[in-house]
Amino acid sequence: MGNSYAGQLKATRFEEVLHHSIEASLRSNSLVPRPVFSRLYLEAEQQLAALEGSSRVDNEEEEDEAEGGLEPSCPPNPYQMHPPPEGCCTMDGFCQAGKDLRLVSISTDPIDVPAGFLLVGAKAPGLPDQLLVCAVDQRFLPDDSGHNALLGFSGNCVGCGKKGFCYFTEFSNHINLKLTTQPKKQKHLKYYLVRNAQGALTKGPLICWKGSEFRGRQTTAGPCSSSLFPLLDSSGPLAAFSGEPTPGTNLSIPPGAQPAGPASGHPPLTVATGPAVFNGQDSPKHQQLVKSKLSAVTRPSALGILSNSGPPKKRHKGWSPESPSATDGGYPQGGGNRAKYEGAGMSCLPPAGWAGPAAVTFPVVASGEPVSVPDNLLKICKAKPVIFKGHGNFPYLCGNLNDVVVSPLLHTCYQSSQSLARAHEQYGASALQPISEETQLLLTVYYLVQLAADQVPLMEDLEQIFLRSWRESHLTETRQYQQAVPLQPFPPTPSAVAPVTSAQLPWLAGLAASSCNDSVHVIECTYSLAEGLSEMFRLLVEGKLAKTNYVVIICACRNAAIDSCIAVTGKYQARILSESLLSPAEYQKEVSYELVTGKVDSLGAFFSTLCPEGDIDVLLDKFHQESQGHISSSLTAASVTKSVSLDVGGVPACTSYSPEPPRVRPFQLAVAQKLLSHVCSVADASTQNLDLGSFEKVDFLICVPPSEVAYQQTLLHVWHSGVLLELGLEKEHVSKQQVEQHVLKLDAEAQTKFKSFLQSAFQNPHTLFVLVHDHAHWDLVSSAVHNLYPQSDPSAGWVDRLLNCREVKEAPNIVTLHVTSFPYALQTQCTLISPYNEIHWPASHSDGADLYPESKKYFGLSEFIESTLSGHSLPLLRYDSSFEAMVTALGKRFPRLHSAVIRTFVLVQHYAAAMMAVSGLSQMKSYTSVETLEITQNLLNAPKQCPCGHGLMVLLRVPCPPLAALAYERLAHVRARLALERHFEIILGSPSSGLTVGKHFVKQLKMWQKIEDAEWRPQTYLELEGLPCILIFSGMDPHGESLPRSLRYCDLRLINSSCLVRTALEQELGLAAYFVNSEGPLEKGPQGEGVESDAEKLSSTDNEEEELVTEGCPSEKRSPVKRGRSCSHESASSGFSSKAPGSALGGETSAQLGGPWQGEQARSPQPCGPSEEGRAPGDKQRLRGGQGPPSGVSRHSPGLAPQQPDSGLKTSQRGVQVQVASSSQLSSSSSATPATGPQAPQAPRCSLAKACRQPPVVFLPKLVYDMVTATDSGGLPKAASLLPSPLVMWASSFRPLLSKTMTSTEQSLYYRQWTVPRPSHMDYGGRAEGRVDGFHPRRLLLSGPPQIGKTGAYLQFLGILSRMLVRLTEVDVYDEEEINIHPREEPDWHYLQLSDPWPDLELFKKLPFDYIVHDPKYEDASLICSHHPSVKSEDRGAPRRPEDLYVRRQTARMRLSKYAAYNTYHHCEQCHQYMGFHPRHQLYESTLHAFAFSYSMLGEEVQLHFIIPKSKEHHFVFRQPGGQLESMRLPLVTDQSHEHIKSPTFTPTTGRHEHGLFNLYHAMDGASHLHVLVVKEYEMPVYKKYWPNHIMLVLPSAFNSAGVGAAHFLIKELSYHNLELERTRQEELGIRPQDIWPFIVISDDSCVMWNVVDVDGGGERSSREFSWSERNVSLKYIMQHIEAAPDITHYALIGMRKWSSKAGSREVREPFSRCHVHDFVVLNVDLTQNVQYNQNRFLCDDVDFNLRAHSAGLLLCRFNRFSVTKQQIAVGGHRAFHIAAKAPDSSAAVVPAQYVCAPDSKHALLAAPAQLLLEKFLQHHSRRFFPLALQNHGHPVLSVDCYLNLGPQISVCYVSSRPHSLNVSCSDFRFSGLLLYLCDSFVGASFLKKFHFLKGATLCVICQDRNSLRQTVVRLELEDQWQFRLRDEFQTANAKEDRPLFFLTGRHV
Q: Residue 772 is inside which H or E element, if any?
């Protein structure tokens, strides 16, 4: 066996180890051979590397080695085909005559087949997915055993009819096979072709060529052994038999054919390795299994499934030469379309109907004789055996078919595991083959051997085993091969070990099963499975399989192909598995049938025999009679007396408990904001799927499942939230009927209401409708499927019918929000919800969670599970072992009854017995369980402890409605016989009906909740708070009903534990989810310790359902041990909390270590008295504090922690120290507690108040408990790895496990990758229709843990969405009244004609100019004195601090009109093209043009650049198209078009590329206009990005640090230069220069709206009646009105008022004013040719320009009836200039006093323009230069040729030095100072001598440098009147290279 041989190409580790083991065991003398599996799994990695290194060959040759023709190292023989004849057809799939031979094309054509010929299918390399039809003489084909085929060939072409091909080479040429190897019929004739029932030709069974399997198997290693060789396409048996990959398989499978499963592509797979846990028990053997490097036995291609190879050529002792060495069924048929193969001419098993978690119809071809199922099998076996089909063929079953269940689940699992996901091709496609059938079966047997007696096999477990074994082996091989290849010059030598054959399987399976004490029995068949099944039935009938849980039947004789099946015969396992195969509808039908037909009577009769005192009913009647006359039970006496006193004596006060007002919690607000941001991101997307700007209000409809309680609960939530009032949908008081219009119950009556909703959405396009689908995981059934089967559930399919209708999908104003705790069914490969539109509830430990402090801690599934791990108290999750034992025993006694019926009867019996025991019949204690007795005791005793009678709720979950009704009747009967009707209520909660509560209890609830309404009845479970009751909760699924805080016990022992689906389990456990008050005294100790360790962070998880939000305490992120200690409020367990660690060390047995329920017995030692639940807090604290020594031991013994489950993984040394610290603090603080009076009240403690501070206790079935508390290798509960929903299926078995570290988003992506919807799912096939990407753009998904407050979050979202829509249409605008207003009494001041639309030029010239600035933004600027010095200092407000200048300006919220200007965030269809965003090309094309002009003041040519979009080039003149820019077109003064605006608009801007209001489309009302953005060079790219369709004027780089004055200067000079160019250009066209339009508009980037005042009342001044109104108008209206003014060219500047809500009739009475204009200026560049803006200025440059324009004799006109509204923009503008120190390491703030310094000083230099430093310094500190001017407005500072802001406390008088200029009369003024700023030659000594100064007045001369400063002093003869000192010279704090400004101060003498 150790020698190599030619035929063996490659073997894997698994095969080698098996063969070594077989050989060793067969040669061994000992009776017990070493088990193969222990050797296989425990072998060292080094040996593996050595083994694999010697087992590799690299050889591409396929078959010839098997024929003995070639050695492994020989190169392959190339095959040269003869060239085809000239002119013939060479197309694949056609013969040379051009006739189609493809099966898919001619399957229905009549084909003439001569006698003795058969139709066969040939495979062509060029068509791997097709078969070519050939007619071949059957004498040259083999028989069924692979023998008796004549050598040679005889065949006909069915296409052209040519006959008599005697050589296969000739025939292969004719049918264009185009082979690269020697043509052989064995290699290319693959299948018989047969006619199906419809007469169509289909692929039939495989042609069994002798030895083909042997050859095929050996040759697989050739092309697959290395990733260096490409996979051979379709040559020989290696062909990748693809086909259409579909989930499922062929309906008809020929004998021996193994179909390939789903082969859809999957992204790369990442798997978290680690030990797997099977059904909650971690198997050490299985840990070996996981660590093993199992390898697939075979090496087929990507989709192929090939069987094992035969024996090696050298025989040895372990091989029987007679054993079959070839299989006939190892080749895949391709996972083709099911229907394609339906009804092939084979015998077919009828479809086995199977519904449930993986419902498929899966007939498998049967062969051989039928197997008869014995009669009375169920009676004999006490359970229905479940037979899982495995590999190969399954025989017919006949006879007593009712007593056996046949399932295809295992077959599907095998098949799915055989289809390799394309994701794994990253490891090298040629190295990948699936696990062989032999390996699968061996692994299955080994898995079954590991299972404990109380465990049930899970397909998920088996899939993970297959995945791990495949992955480990293949990754190891790939890694080793990649390491070995570079080192070896020659291919590795072939392995000496042959692969396992199927003949060995029975022996190996028996070997594996030999150690399991007959739990697994292996039956080997010699002919077919039929004999094995017959043998199994015989053994079952004879009782020889009583201890056997699983029977494995293997038939490996049929040409070495495997047939197998596995029968589950264990009573427990068979019952659970058979019931799990029932759908919910079938489950209910079965239970109802058993109840109706009286099958359960035998169960009742059996119960009556259990009680030794006779029937329980007899005992009850006897007790009832005794208690009629007198009350015998002291318990009853106390309670009844108490209830009477309640009725008579009023309402006693309960001081411990008060109801909670509804409020929005911080996390709900955070989630609402996340929802809002997602909606905004949908709107911001470039796809334009949601235009938020077009909506004015929000409306909504909430769809809930058809549960009356859930419906009423949602109504209450909406009513309490006030959302209807907030959205403006209702006014003042909201009635319940109004609320009902917004909540829809999805039942048969929903359609009418939904249609009206759709109609409303259609009629109100400007309303955004939010369609909330609450509890969205319910009813995802496709309406199409439901229409086919309407008899199923009448409520099914409504979600799909309504929410997925075309109207909802297409309506642009409907956003659908799915809300659920279990989103898995909405996270498939075909979901309509984009992963970017998912919102997950934030986990408490996530980033930012500290921003949302919660007063409550959420207890969800992960916290319940941790309570079972922590070891400090009794766990909150429990199971009832005595109940489970009784159910199991009865299940064996009554095998025909469904386990749900048995469990319900047992539990009801337990409750009845417990009630009797608590009522005084103590003998009944032995007929109930400890758990049920505890529940009943606390239920009855709790009301005694509260003066009000507050009690506890017990939730009894009975999913099946008939059983729930039965339980209700029985418990109500027992309660009545025990006279307990007034002690607690029993409520039947059914989805289809409302609540029914007795009058006595309704009265109590009304008293507690202070309800006056006489008609009030509780309609939700939340309204039952404090009521002692048993709530029997029925319905197959909870529908989102919330439970009150008085819930104390959640009894889930009756849930359908066989429905192993993640959603089903988690929604049942979600009923117990709970918010716990976290501020009570029990938490005081741990709350004081705000410590957090890294280990604690590791223990947290961001998993939705597993890590639920823990809020409230500072030390939230704890290790499980510490978290349990601080957060459990189980009063009885608090005694054990610090004792358990110490007692464990001290050798004592604590309750925790004694099992899940021994602690319960310790809790309630006295059956009738109150348990420790009723202890006062002081007692609890004393109990805890009195245990000093044990807690002292635990304090010094941190080493115990790692002994607890999983804590070794989660607790580092630091974590243990933290835990011990909190423990010691807990005991010390609690021992001090009793001394502090208030925390230890003496009165009995209200149990409801206590219940609010501890989560409920949950009782589960044992199976579910094991599933939930066990963890898999990913660290999550095993329940998380189950199929997520019954409506989906796994896309592949080859998927990784979910990981504990996955966030909710990663979990979503996992399910989106690995699950696909079933055909019954509403998303099935949804991707084909609609959008390309398949996602609906307006569909969102909100997921969060159950009961955490999702309803409140989305109602809050609706409110803030509405507020945001209002805010989207509102902006903050400046709302300030004008400043410096004083009465104007001179008659010549007024413009007399009040009704004039335009100013009369002659009248206007007579108006005096108003020097005073009235714009409120200049409130902090210096007052300008004029000949009206009537504004006194006291008229001016208190100066503001510089930092308040912006913050404290008054603003108002204003709704945008339809004529507003917008920023870049505005999107609407109308201005889409205007903005330049086009779906096809994001940015409009634009070109860059240089434009140069010379200007003497700058001393050089000015180079500007225009960026002109193609769409705006018509505004410009070019030398030739695309050539040099000549000029910007200007219209004529005489143009009268109403469709365009004549004046070009220039908007200088900086730092506001997003927020600047440059979208003037709506403002201009769509009129054509020219708008130019003036930007700095460095900001050009970002402006161009945001405004691609706007013209940009880019300033030269020298102006990058300049202020707004430079922009204004260049705009004006450029415009004048352009005017000259246009005059020249148009003069050539015969147009006079004066007719060219000379105006431009200079607009701020914050002008948002424009308004006009309509004046109604007398046109003359004498008229006293004067009324006016203001309305919003378009900018187009205002501009066209101004441009139409007569004599407009005589005005230099035209402006308008700034809007203010405070404007009165005084401001608007005068239609026109001659005064300063700001913000929005219409500028005549012709008249102002000689007046320039100061290019150096940063502040007040418009005031400066206005003064100089007026002094030049020009007219400035303000239209007072027009106003501009300015928006407050918090970024950019003049705030973009930051003054900081030039030194890079200086971080100190710079104040204005540091802006100037003495020349040549060591002062810190600043990085800012000198002009800005000067202006800022003068604004804040000019009092240093002009002390006499301070608050001295009668003696202003004389400012020559400029206006500089000297601060609000100093007034200035502006004079111009230009000849003929208009100036204020200064003869009356004595000035307190003189300011000379960069004065030019017009200022001379004689000019200054005209003015008079106060004695001591000060002078400030500012120049560019020190030299010009001295020259100016000399030229102006200043030293004659002014005294200078050397120390009075200053400079701005700039470096020399920044050209500082210098100034000199002097004093008047």
A: strand 767-774
Kindly report the backbone phi and psi dihedral angles of residue 1643, in degrees, each rounded to the nearest multiple of 5, phi listed first. Answer: -120, 140
User: Tokens 């992963």 belong to which residue?
Assistant: 835
Give the type of residue at 733.
Answer: H
User: In the numeric block, which tokens belong to residue 323?
Assistant: 């054993």
Question: What local confidence, expressed as pLDDT, does residue 45 receive?
Answer: 37
What is the DSSP track for 1153-1168?
GG-TTHHHHHH--SSS
* Tens-place pLDDT, residues 363-419: 333 456 789 999 888 888 888 999 999 998 889 899 889 999 999 999 988 888 877
Residue-by-residue DSSP string for 453-465:
TT----HHHHHHH
**Two tokens at 749?**
């009556």
Q: Which two tokens stand for residue 458?
A: 């899970």
Q: What is the pLDDT of residues 1453-1469, one digit of tens each?
A: 998 998 999 998 887 77
Distance CA 932, CA 558 (A): 57
Nearest to 1216 by CA among 1367, 1095, 1105, 1385: 1095
Q: What distance in Å separates the CA atoms of residue 944 and residue 952, rounded to the nearest whole number?
A: 11
Three-state SS annotation for 1654-1714:
EEEECCCCCCCCEEEEEEEECHHHHHHHHHCCCCHHHCCEEEEEECCCCCCHHHHHCCEEC
Mean pLDDT for the stretch of residues 910-914? 95
Q: What is the mean pLDDT of residues 464-492?
A: 62
- In tens, the pLDDT along 1343-1365 reads 999 999 999 999 999 999 999 88
* Structure confidence at residue 1079 (pLDDT): 53
Alpha carbon distance, N-terminus to C-terminus of the chain = 125
Q: How far apart are CA 1845 and CA 1743, in angstroms?
A: 10
pLDDT for the residue 432:
63
pLDDT at 1868 over 90: no
Nearest to 872 by CA among 1227, 1271, 1275: 1227
Contact 1614, 1504 (CB under 8 A): yes
Tens-digit pLDDT profile for residues 1041-1084: 999 999 999 999 999 876 789 999 999 999 999 888 765 433 33
Position 644 confidence tier, pLDDT thresholds 50, 70, 90: very low
Q: Is the pTM of this model over 0.70?
A: no
Distances (CA, A) of 1920 to 307, 1838, 1866, 1928: 118, 18, 21, 17
Q: Tell me the percentage of the chain whose pLDDT exceeds 70.
A: 71
Distances (CA, A) of 1489 to 194, 1505, 1680: 77, 6, 30
Tokens representing 114? 């001569």
d(CA 1614, CA 1506): 12
Question: Is there a contact between 834 and 1334 (Cβ–Cβ < 8 Å)?
Answer: no
Average pLDDT over residues 722-727: 91
Asked if 1826 and 1837 touch (Cβ cutoff 8 Å), the reply is yes
Residues in the chain: 1949
Number of helices and strands in the chain (H, E): 60, 56
Query: Residue 1556, exposed/middle/buried by CB under 10 A (0-12, 13-18, 19+)?
Result: buried
Q: How many angstroms separate the CA atoms of 1856 and 1837, rounded?
A: 14
* DSSP-assigned letters across all residues of 116-184: TEEEEEEEETTEEEEEEEEEEEGGGS--TTS--PPSS--EE-TTT----B--HHHHHHHTT---SS---
- DSSP secondary structure letter of residue 1424: E
Answer whether 261's CB lies under 8 Å from 323's CB.
Answer: no
List b or e across 1085-1117, with b for residues whose CB sees 16 or more CB atoms inside 10 angstroms. bbbebebbbebbebbbbbbbbbbbbbbbbebbb
Closest CA to 933 of 951, 913, 950, 948: 913
Contact 1691, 1725 (CB under 8 A): no
For residue 41, give both structure tokens.
Answer: 């799994």
> How far apart, in whole angstroms, are the C-alpha atoms of residue 102 and residue 130?
7
Number of neighbouring beta carbons within 10 Å of residue 1485: 10
